[in-house]
Amino acid sequence: MENQNAIFNSAGFRRKFHYAGNDLGARLTEEGTEFRLWAPTAETVQLRLYASGHEGEPWQILPMTRLDKGVWFARVDQPLHGTYYDYQVTVEGVAQTTADPYARACGLNGTRSMVVDLRATDPAGWQEDKAPARQAEDIIYEVHVREFSWDKSGGFPAAYRGKYKAFTCPDTTLYGQGEKPTGLAYLRRLGVNYIQLMPVFDYGSVDEAAPDDSFNWGYDPVNYNVPEGSYSLDPADGALRIRELKEAIQSLHRQGFRVIMDVVYNHTYHRDSWLERTVPGYYYRHWPDGSWSDGSQCGNDLASERSMCAAYIRDSVLYWAEEYHMDGFRFDLMGLLDCDLMEQIRKALDQRYGRGEKLVFGEPWSAGPTACKRGTRLAGKKNLTSMDPEVGAFCDGVRDAVKGSVQHRESKGFVNSGAGKENQILASAAAWCPGGRRFHAAAPSQVITYLSCHDDLTLWDKLVMTLDPLKQYDARTPRVLRANRLAAAIAMTCQGRLFLLGGEEFGRTKQGRSDTHNDPIQLNRLDWQRAWENQDLVDYYRGLMALRKQLPALCDKSPRAAERILQTGIPFARCVTLLVDNAGSRWRQLYLVYNASGRAHTIDPDGEDWEVLADGESSFGWQNPRKDKSFTVQPGTALILGKASGD
Ligand code: CA
Prior knowledge:
binds calcium ion; single chain; globular; 6-stranded antiparallel sheet; 8-stranded parallel barrel; alpha/beta
């Protein structure tokens, strides 16, 4: 195995076999259909054609020809749109059946690939589809396709619940009663502008023949370049899921949202993947003793530092951007991928779409050590500042400082009685530029500011767990509501891009369970009734988002943004203040007070007039501001003041 690692890591292998063409997979041409597979270690490859995506024998078997660089080729003199296929690849005398790793369509459960005429999958108007204009701030809202529309309270048509199609419904209401907006109508009102879709590539943990029998988040890739089938109205129709996902994206764009795709290139569902069956050993990291590297704790790690693996990942990202009009990419366990690849992706997207136009960010960590080639720079926290400033990372510094570590359920942060968090909160406000003990960033463009995502406890559950001895997840406990508001006020006034778990703003609960990746949909679904029961909390988030977009000091993504923070203070334990230069807007300066303590704090910033933009009661103060020179900040609340530019 040491030998195999050495061969696949070698410059010689790369020189001999690196294929730079972008025509791998099945392509329709004027004359027919061409198939190309990169399989340099194969002795023979056969192409097998089927009428069905999941049953029956092949109607034709064709030997493939070996071309330069280890590419295998076959041509059929017919346009085969809708024909299913797989390969038989023989390496060292062992024949393996595999779907096409480069497939862009597949049959039920993705075990066979499908030849597809992509233009035939375009919904009407797709060529004109365009992302809405960028706003002053990027506010990312994370949803799972099935969770989003599954609950009856959402008022979606029965057939569309849990499907891509639900995103084509712009005006749903609570239980369909025609009054209280849910779904996209609710989100338009809320003010978020990016919808992040949890995995929509084809994954393996849900049986597409019986999608209602189980639930999964889908961090288990099978076909990287094909949409997941269980969200389609007919997973057996290889073209339909493509069209339906495009329809969803088109609708999201029309409703004013950009779309981010959650991508999981760090590992595959099985070690026995199409990549492994096609070129055994090449796409995965191994330790010198031959054992599989498992930094993902999902059984395997992709070897992103090898040139054809890097090209595979980069081309996959470009494909989703080009073919599906994705506006950004969130990389699962980015810390397992390498910096060179992330920068290659950044550069390629910038060249095609303009600098920074497509968002690129990820989790700057891994779940364990990984066996990458010596000298590989991994895209984890340690190397963040040396990467392109438009490669971003989830900031666990702010997440844990505000509400306590995700590692320990009882651990507390600034808003829920945790002690000694003041300096971390101040560092969070400056998006950890120039950095602190927990996190370093070169610019706020590298920082995803967030309190909760699909992993770990929801914000609400963390607050209940740490503040309510009775652990009443469904009660409206004033102490919990107050802490949630303060947490939101802090997050929404920290520099960096803003991100929230769908439903965080309505006190989403999973009844104290964390990492609910395969728990029932009944626990994971978005409960739109709860969204309206906690409308006061939703409104508090809504006001903060609208205010945020008016505050250039906080939206500034440049490396010098931290210089806008003119003064910071810690008047007493669990209370911090910030004076911020907000030049170029309606308010030339901001004064922020986060008072998590149990005592009121009276302030008189400079003896001049200030306007109350938001306080613990309302985040809409900025609409008709009250003016004064001194203010009392109630216990457990935030105060956001602005000094009018004319004053
Ligand atoms: Ca699937």
